[in-house]
Amino acid sequence: MDAIKASQQASAAEIERFFSETLAERIKNPQDDLLSMFSAAEVDGSRLTKDEIIGICFLFILAGLDTVTDTLECFFAYLAQHPEQRQLIVNDESIIPSAVEEMLRWETPVTGVARVAIQDTELGGCPVTKGDSVGISLGSANTDERHLEDADVVDFSRNSKHLSFGAGVHRCLGSHLARLELRTTLREWHKRIPNYSIAPGTELNYMFGLRQIDTLPLIFE
What we know:
The protein is mostly helical. It folds into two domains: 2-63, no CATH class; 67-220, CATH 1.10.630.10. The protein is 48% helix and 12% strand. The protein has eight helices and eight strands. The strands form four sheets. Strands 1-2 form a two-stranded antiparallel ribbon. It is globular.
């Protein structure tokens, strides 16, 4: 684990160095690209700092690195195990947008988020002090029967409301792109491969953090 952590830190340092050097070059010689735009951008009359710009660049890399592919893993695992639901998509691709929203609710690829309390409060009888770190389970919220009837039933026909992309000022910036990618993949895949199943004897192991599957061997018919 120490070797893995060291490798991750080295990679992060290399990426940061690349962005830092490229940003310095863009400040001297602006181009038609995002780094040049960030270097010239102002928020309330103030320019973004170097650290803020590099932080945004890291966000752009990490936010979409694994989330869509991990979501597709979960989608295909679910559909492989529920052929009757899969057939709905095969028979009528117009159902795909609502199917995507419902599976986003059910699978919740980003299972939780961390927040810092800005004031003293109480949640469910548990006192929370200003400055406390709070872990919020989006998966639990998405299956809360107090807010959604039959929350444990996957229904592609329902108008699914969920928190899989977060909410408020921290809502996922790439949610519209992610939806487009998910819808397009499901549509084109099922045009070509309508029948598939998980290889016999496979045990699905879901990983900690992002909801992803260790390995997903599929058999195409």
